[in-house]
Amino acid sequence: MPELPEVEVIKNMIKSILKGKIINYSIIRTKKLKYVIPNNIIKIHNQKILDVKRRGRYIIIILLKNTIIIHLGMTGILSIINKNFHLYNKHDHIDLIIDNHLILRYTDIRKFGFWLWDIKNYKKNIFLKKLGPEPLKNDFNSLYLYNYTKKKNIAIKILLMDNKIVTGIGNIYANESLFLSKISPIRISNTLNLQEIKILVKNIKYILYQSIKHGGSTINNYKLPNDNTGKFSKYFFVYAKKDKLCQICKTKIIRIFQRNRSTFLCYKCQK
Ligand SMILES: [Zn+2]
Fold first, then answer.
1. Fewer Cβ within 10 Å of end Cβ, the chain: N or C?
2. CA of residue 92 to ligand 1 center, whole Å
3. What is the dihedral of CA 127, 129, 133, 139, to 10 degrees?
Protein backbone atom coordinates (compact mmCIF):
# COMPACT_ATOMS: atom_id res chain seq x y z
CA MET A 1 0.00 0.00 0.00
CA PRO A 2 1.39 3.43 -0.85
CA GLU A 3 2.09 5.61 2.16
CA LEU A 4 2.50 9.36 2.37
CA PRO A 5 5.94 9.66 0.71
CA GLU A 6 4.91 7.46 -2.20
CA VAL A 7 1.71 9.44 -2.76
CA GLU A 8 3.71 12.69 -2.54
CA VAL A 9 6.11 11.43 -5.23
CA ILE A 10 3.19 10.36 -7.45
CA LYS A 11 1.51 13.74 -6.92
CA ASN A 12 4.69 15.59 -7.87
CA MET A 13 5.06 13.48 -11.00
CA ILE A 14 1.50 14.10 -12.16
CA LYS A 15 1.69 17.79 -11.31
CA SER A 16 4.96 18.37 -13.18
CA ILE A 17 3.64 16.78 -16.36
CA LEU A 18 -0.08 17.56 -16.35
CA LYS A 19 -0.57 20.98 -14.72
CA GLY A 20 -2.10 23.41 -17.20
CA LYS A 21 -3.06 20.69 -19.67
CA ILE A 22 -6.58 19.78 -20.82
CA ILE A 23 -8.45 16.54 -20.17
CA ASN A 24 -9.94 15.79 -23.58
CA TYR A 25 -11.96 12.72 -22.70
CA SER A 26 -11.91 9.54 -20.64
CA ILE A 27 -12.07 5.82 -21.28
CA ILE A 28 -13.62 3.76 -18.48
CA ARG A 29 -13.09 0.03 -18.91
CA THR A 30 -14.20 -1.02 -15.42
CA LYS A 31 -16.85 0.90 -13.55
CA LYS A 32 -16.67 -1.08 -10.36
CA LEU A 33 -13.72 0.04 -8.29
CA LYS A 34 -14.25 0.38 -4.52
CA TYR A 35 -17.03 2.79 -5.45
CA VAL A 36 -18.82 2.59 -8.78
CA ILE A 37 -17.75 5.23 -11.26
CA PRO A 38 -20.85 7.23 -12.16
CA ASN A 39 -21.82 8.35 -15.64
CA ASN A 40 -21.20 11.98 -14.80
CA ILE A 41 -17.51 11.56 -15.50
CA ILE A 42 -18.31 13.51 -18.65
CA LYS A 43 -18.26 16.60 -16.43
CA ILE A 44 -14.48 16.55 -16.31
CA HIS A 45 -14.06 16.45 -20.08
CA ASN A 46 -12.52 19.50 -21.75
CA GLN A 47 -11.42 20.95 -18.45
CA LYS A 48 -8.01 22.34 -17.63
CA ILE A 49 -5.92 20.81 -14.82
CA LEU A 50 -5.24 23.81 -12.60
CA ASP A 51 -3.29 22.06 -9.87
CA VAL A 52 -2.52 18.69 -8.29
CA LYS A 53 -2.36 18.36 -4.50
CA ARG A 54 -2.03 15.69 -1.86
CA ARG A 55 -3.89 15.36 1.42
CA GLY A 56 -2.95 12.30 3.46
CA ARG A 57 -2.88 9.51 0.92
CA TYR A 58 -5.39 11.15 -1.40
CA ILE A 59 -4.39 12.74 -4.70
CA ILE A 60 -6.48 15.76 -5.59
CA ILE A 61 -6.66 16.97 -9.20
CA ILE A 62 -8.14 20.44 -9.26
CA LEU A 63 -9.99 21.40 -12.44
CA LEU A 64 -11.66 24.65 -13.35
CA LYS A 65 -15.18 23.61 -12.28
CA ASN A 66 -14.70 20.60 -10.04
CA THR A 67 -12.14 18.27 -8.50
CA ILE A 68 -11.08 14.65 -8.84
CA ILE A 69 -10.07 12.77 -5.68
CA ILE A 70 -8.07 9.56 -6.15
CA HIS A 71 -7.21 6.94 -3.55
CA LEU A 72 -4.91 4.14 -4.72
CA GLY A 73 -6.16 1.56 -2.23
CA MET A 74 -3.87 -1.46 -1.99
CA THR A 75 -2.70 -1.94 -5.56
CA GLY A 76 -3.61 1.19 -7.53
CA ILE A 77 -1.01 2.44 -10.02
CA LEU A 78 -1.00 5.76 -11.83
CA SER A 79 1.12 6.10 -14.90
CA ILE A 80 1.55 8.64 -17.64
CA ILE A 81 2.06 7.15 -21.06
CA ASN A 82 2.21 8.28 -24.64
CA LYS A 83 -1.16 7.91 -26.33
CA ASN A 84 0.48 6.29 -29.33
CA PHE A 85 1.32 3.27 -27.18
CA HIS A 86 -2.32 2.65 -26.50
CA LEU A 87 -2.23 -1.06 -25.72
CA TYR A 88 -3.82 -1.93 -22.42
CA ASN A 89 -4.33 -4.97 -20.22
CA LYS A 90 -7.30 -6.13 -18.19
CA HIS A 91 -6.30 -4.25 -15.03
CA ASP A 92 -6.03 -0.84 -16.79
CA HIS A 93 -9.40 0.54 -15.71
CA ILE A 94 -9.31 4.26 -16.45
CA ASP A 95 -7.55 6.39 -19.07
CA LEU A 96 -7.75 10.16 -19.13
CA ILE A 97 -6.65 11.50 -22.50
CA ILE A 98 -4.64 14.67 -21.92
CA ASP A 99 -3.74 17.31 -24.51
CA ASN A 100 -4.48 14.73 -27.22
CA HIS A 101 -1.14 12.98 -26.78
CA LEU A 102 -0.81 11.71 -23.21
CA ILE A 103 -2.77 9.23 -21.09
CA LEU A 104 -3.09 9.35 -17.32
CA ARG A 105 -3.79 5.69 -16.70
CA TYR A 106 -5.18 4.02 -13.59
CA THR A 107 -4.36 0.34 -13.11
CA ASP A 108 -5.59 -1.63 -10.10
CA ILE A 109 -5.46 -5.41 -9.75
CA ARG A 110 -7.48 -5.68 -6.53
CA LYS A 111 -9.74 -2.68 -7.19
CA PHE A 112 -9.75 -1.33 -3.62
CA GLY A 113 -8.83 2.14 -4.88
CA PHE A 114 -11.38 4.72 -6.00
CA TRP A 115 -11.93 7.86 -8.03
CA LEU A 116 -14.45 10.55 -7.13
CA TRP A 117 -15.17 12.84 -10.07
CA ASP A 118 -17.45 15.62 -9.19
CA ILE A 119 -16.22 17.24 -5.99
CA LYS A 120 -17.00 20.93 -5.63
CA ASN A 121 -15.17 21.76 -2.39
CA TYR A 122 -12.67 19.02 -1.70
CA LYS A 123 -11.83 20.33 1.78
CA LYS A 124 -15.38 19.47 2.83
CA ASN A 125 -15.27 16.02 1.27
CA ILE A 126 -16.30 13.31 3.71
CA PHE A 127 -12.98 11.46 3.39
CA LEU A 128 -10.74 14.51 3.68
CA LYS A 129 -12.45 16.58 6.34
CA LYS A 130 -11.87 14.04 9.11
CA LEU A 131 -8.11 13.79 8.53
CA GLY A 132 -5.72 15.09 11.17
CA PRO A 133 -2.84 17.45 10.35
CA GLU A 134 -0.21 16.63 7.76
CA PRO A 135 2.92 15.30 9.51
CA LEU A 136 5.20 17.57 7.46
CA LYS A 137 3.27 20.74 8.26
CA ASN A 138 3.91 22.96 11.25
CA ASP A 139 0.59 22.23 12.94
CA PHE A 140 1.94 18.74 13.57
CA ASN A 141 4.45 19.55 16.32
CA SER A 142 5.56 18.15 19.67
CA LEU A 143 3.02 20.09 21.75
CA TYR A 144 0.20 19.00 19.47
CA LEU A 145 1.21 15.34 19.67
CA TYR A 146 1.92 15.49 23.41
CA ASN A 147 -1.60 16.75 24.01
CA TYR A 148 -2.86 13.49 22.53
CA THR A 149 -0.27 11.07 23.92
CA LYS A 150 -0.67 12.19 27.52
CA LYS A 151 -4.40 11.39 27.35
CA LYS A 152 -4.18 8.08 25.51
CA ASN A 153 -3.84 4.67 27.07
CA ILE A 154 -2.86 2.91 23.80
CA ALA A 155 0.47 1.84 22.30
CA ILE A 156 2.35 4.73 20.70
CA LYS A 157 2.56 3.02 17.31
CA ILE A 158 -1.21 2.54 17.22
CA LEU A 159 -1.64 6.22 18.04
CA LEU A 160 0.77 7.33 15.27
CA MET A 161 -1.24 5.35 12.74
CA ASP A 162 -4.53 7.02 13.66
CA ASN A 163 -5.28 9.28 10.69
CA LYS A 164 -7.53 11.47 12.79
CA ILE A 165 -4.54 12.42 14.99
CA VAL A 166 -1.93 12.71 12.23
CA THR A 167 -2.58 11.68 8.68
CA GLY A 168 -0.63 9.28 6.51
CA ILE A 169 2.35 8.17 8.63
CA GLY A 170 1.51 4.53 7.97
CA ASN A 171 3.14 1.33 9.10
CA ILE A 172 6.58 1.62 7.53
CA TYR A 173 7.27 5.14 8.79
CA ALA A 174 5.77 4.53 12.25
CA ASN A 175 8.19 1.60 12.66
CA GLU A 176 11.20 3.51 11.36
CA SER A 177 10.61 6.74 13.27
CA LEU A 178 10.08 4.86 16.57
CA PHE A 179 13.36 3.01 16.03
CA LEU A 180 15.24 6.24 15.34
CA SER A 181 13.69 7.70 18.50
CA LYS A 182 14.66 4.63 20.61
CA ILE A 183 11.02 4.30 21.66
CA SER A 184 9.36 0.89 21.78
CA PRO A 185 6.24 0.67 19.57
CA ILE A 186 4.37 -0.98 22.43
CA ARG A 187 5.06 1.81 24.96
CA ILE A 188 1.77 3.17 26.25
CA SER A 189 1.39 6.68 24.87
CA ASN A 190 0.83 8.42 28.20
CA THR A 191 4.20 7.17 29.53
CA LEU A 192 6.12 9.27 27.02
CA ASN A 193 7.48 12.58 28.25
CA LEU A 194 7.61 15.79 26.25
CA GLN A 195 11.30 15.37 25.46
CA GLU A 196 10.67 11.94 23.93
CA ILE A 197 7.77 13.34 21.91
CA LYS A 198 10.01 16.13 20.61
CA ILE A 199 12.53 13.57 19.37
CA LEU A 200 9.77 11.43 17.88
CA VAL A 201 8.18 14.31 15.96
CA LYS A 202 11.58 15.37 14.64
CA ASN A 203 12.29 11.82 13.44
CA ILE A 204 8.85 11.40 11.83
CA LYS A 205 9.45 14.51 9.73
CA TYR A 206 13.03 13.47 8.99
CA ILE A 207 12.14 9.96 7.83
CA LEU A 208 9.26 11.18 5.64
CA TYR A 209 11.46 13.84 4.01
CA GLN A 210 14.21 11.29 3.41
CA SER A 211 11.78 8.88 1.81
CA ILE A 212 10.30 11.54 -0.47
CA LYS A 213 13.85 12.53 -1.46
CA HIS A 214 14.56 8.95 -2.50
CA GLY A 215 11.32 8.53 -4.40
CA GLY A 216 9.40 6.63 -1.70
CA SER A 217 9.72 3.05 -0.50
CA THR A 218 7.64 1.01 -2.85
CA ILE A 219 8.03 0.70 -6.57
CA ASN A 220 4.63 -0.80 -7.19
CA ASN A 221 2.31 2.15 -7.31
CA TYR A 222 3.61 4.43 -10.00
CA LYS A 223 5.78 4.53 -13.04
CA LEU A 224 7.89 7.55 -13.76
CA PRO A 225 9.28 8.20 -17.24
CA ASN A 226 12.84 7.73 -15.97
CA ASP A 227 11.82 4.86 -13.67
CA ASN A 228 14.07 6.29 -10.98
CA THR A 229 11.73 5.50 -8.13
CA GLY A 230 11.24 3.79 -4.84
CA LYS A 231 14.77 3.61 -3.50
CA PHE A 232 14.06 4.32 0.15
CA SER A 233 13.56 0.70 1.22
CA LYS A 234 17.36 0.37 1.02
CA TYR A 235 17.57 2.65 4.04
CA PHE A 236 15.17 0.82 6.37
CA PHE A 237 16.50 0.15 9.87
CA VAL A 238 13.81 -2.24 11.12
CA TYR A 239 10.88 -2.48 8.71
CA ALA A 240 10.72 -5.97 7.13
CA LYS A 241 14.07 -6.79 8.78
CA LYS A 242 12.97 -9.67 11.01
CA ASP A 243 16.01 -11.70 12.16
CA LYS A 244 18.44 -9.20 10.62
CA LEU A 245 20.87 -7.57 13.02
CA CYS A 246 20.15 -4.13 14.47
CA GLN A 247 22.59 -1.65 12.92
CA ILE A 248 23.22 -0.04 16.31
CA CYS A 249 23.61 -2.96 18.76
CA LYS A 250 23.69 -6.12 16.55
CA THR A 251 20.71 -7.68 18.34
CA LYS A 252 18.23 -9.53 16.12
CA ILE A 253 15.27 -7.43 14.98
CA ILE A 254 12.00 -9.02 16.07
CA ARG A 255 8.52 -8.88 14.56
CA ILE A 256 5.37 -8.67 16.62
CA PHE A 257 1.80 -7.84 15.64
CA GLN A 258 -0.22 -4.82 16.73
CA ARG A 259 -3.81 -4.74 15.52
CA ASN A 260 -2.91 -7.27 12.82
CA ARG A 261 -0.13 -5.09 11.42
CA SER A 262 3.52 -6.12 11.55
CA THR A 263 5.70 -4.21 13.97
CA PHE A 264 9.48 -4.51 13.79
CA LEU A 265 11.74 -3.46 16.62
CA CYS A 266 15.04 -3.87 18.43
CA TYR A 267 14.04 -4.62 22.00
CA LYS A 268 17.48 -3.57 23.22
CA CYS A 269 17.60 -0.13 21.58
CA GLN A 270 13.92 0.72 21.94
CA LYS A 271 12.53 1.22 25.43
ZN1 LIG B 1 19.49 -2.36 18.67
1. C
2. 44
3. 170
